[in-house]
Hints:
- By secondary structure, this protein is of the alpha/beta class.
- It is 45% helix and 20% strand.
- It contains 20 helices and 18 strands.
- The protein has helices at residues 43-51, 84-92, 96-104, 111-114, 122-135, 152-164, 176-182, 201-236, 243-255, 327-334, 358-361, 370-377, 384-393, 410-422, 440-452, 464-470, 489-510, 523-531, 534-564, 568-598; strands spanning 3-14, 17-28, 32-36, 58-63, 69-71, 140-144, 168-172, 185-190, 193-197, 281-292, 301-312, 316-320, 342-347, 353-356, 428-432, 456-460, 473-478, 481-485.
- A six-stranded mixed beta sheet has the order 5-6-7-3-8-9, sandwiched between helices. A six-stranded mixed beta sheet has the order 14-15-16-12-17-18.
- Helix 15 links the parallel strand 15 (428-432) and strand 16 (456-460).
- Helix 12 runs parallel beside helix 14 (410-422) and helix 19 (534-564) runs antiparallel to helix 20 (568-598).
- Pfam families: ABC_tran, ABC_tran_CTD, ABC_tran_Xtn.
- It comes from Rubripirellula lacrimiformis.
- Residues 5-223, 283-504 form the ABC transporter domain.
- This is Putative ABC transporter ATP-binding protein YheS.
Amino acid sequence: MAVLIQVRDAHKRFGDQVLLDGAELSLVDDVKIGFIGRNGAGKSTLLRALLGNEELEKGEVIHHPSLRIGYLRQHDPFQAGESAMDFLMRDSGEPDWRCGEVAGQFELKGDYLNGPVKELSGGWQTRVKLAALLLHDPNMLMLDEPTNFLDLRTQILLEHFLRDFSKAALIVSHDRAFLKATCSQTLELSRGKLIMYPGKIDSFLEYREERREHDRRVNSTVIAKQKQLQRFIEKNRASAATASQARSKAKQLEKLQTTEIQVDEPTVNIRPPSVDPRSGTALRCESMAIGYPANKELEAHVVADQINFEIEHGQRVAIVGDNGQGKTTLLRTIVHSLEPMDGTMKWGYGVEIGTYAQHVYTSLDERQTVLENLEYSSDSNTTRQDLLAMAGALLFRDEHINKKVKVLSGGERARLCMAGLLLGTANVLVLDEPGNHLDVETVEALAEALDLYKGTVIFTSHDRHFVRRVANRVVEVRDGTVKTYFGDYDSYLATVEAEIDEGERQRGKASGKSDSDSGAKPKGVEHRERGKDSRKTEKELKNLEKKIAKLDDEKKDLTKKMLKETNPNEALKQHEAIEKIKAELVEAEERWLELSDFS
């Protein structure tokens, strides 16, 4: 196991903000790592340092001689007029057949491969960039927020690509579902320190919260003891008879120390708009068509028609579908940014709509400060404390609340728009990709707030964890129409996964791959061979059952010990042992199922 990149004693700051404070890191050649941290913590700075594009104030970054980094470019690398095939051949120097073979892994074919690449959507352009990465044969991938603006299908294709990629990867993302599906370890940057955890993101977040809760309980006990000792000292130090006891207690008091709880302050806590719950129909669409009217340059374009659906007050509706199918067009229509091209759309009585979308946060009043904008947007009953708390939750703290809107970045304007919306009185929220520009903790806090919200939510999001947390209804935009999906979000995900798997099977057949090509035996032959030795199979099944029961008991015992462990290093060792047992369990259970099928 070679160390491809090593970081030693890294220090970096911007002004008064410390980004790296003696950070240490080793990246090995066969591990995929999810890299998380609060916005502004320094993740992108560290990536640039690893790439050699950012100098450290102190410390060093050491590259292995065999290192070949594949970095997902965020900028536009395409030339005017060139096709995706032209770009892939120019960028990689590989022949057209090889470029076409790799492009097929990302469903790039036909006009998507041979038409002008600059006319493709952002998601399809990302597919082209990923194909280019693979053509360079990297042994270390670095992906910075790769799922931003990618539709579900492209995300799943990217997951499959990473699943089959046998080398190392470092992936910065706030998308928990994506990190869980692709990364076996988790790296966190917090307060200038790098913390490597040998497990997936969900386990890491649970472990981190357990540690913090343990530290809080210990601190409460220590503080109570400190107060008790302090009272005794103050009461008895003046008396000659008890002065020696007071001195003894003072020494005990000096030894009692609380544990610093490693958490970025202030903790994100977003409150939803306070509205009265309503019942009945919030929105009704009948025979509606959506699209864009004719202008001097373009003819009228219908994106989807014959749209019939209703949304009830209190529902949280996820609008799903591939990029380019019309999700944003639908949202723009229902908030009156576009007029329906046909049919009718009617909102219920007393509806107040709050909108979060790019066309909103790019039109903020640039003369206002952050604080002035929030005061203007908020409910008249909002206290200054509530206003500052919401600003802080969306990362506007201290002097940042006095910044002018005109100097804010696109991400900062988006967060400001979200803060103002949540401080308002809207009883219907229409949100287009609300998780973009927010980190893991803030996305989770937003999901919790929307869960408590008494109004109606209509939203799009490519973050599967967020959609699963928030949505209780799914509406799909596909093939020129909009319809209610009869099933929950998990069943919708399963449908898309099945379609992608079928596409990959078809491409495998088209490229001439088969069981016999790969050296695998036909299933019928395997079946007969297993049948020849049924006694051996039965014995192995019994041994596996004993092994599974034993491993399960060991896992339970270790889990109990880990939860009680007070030493973080020991807890990490126990977690590693648990993960190893889990892997053995999966292997044993899969073998048991395989043998059961043919016994």
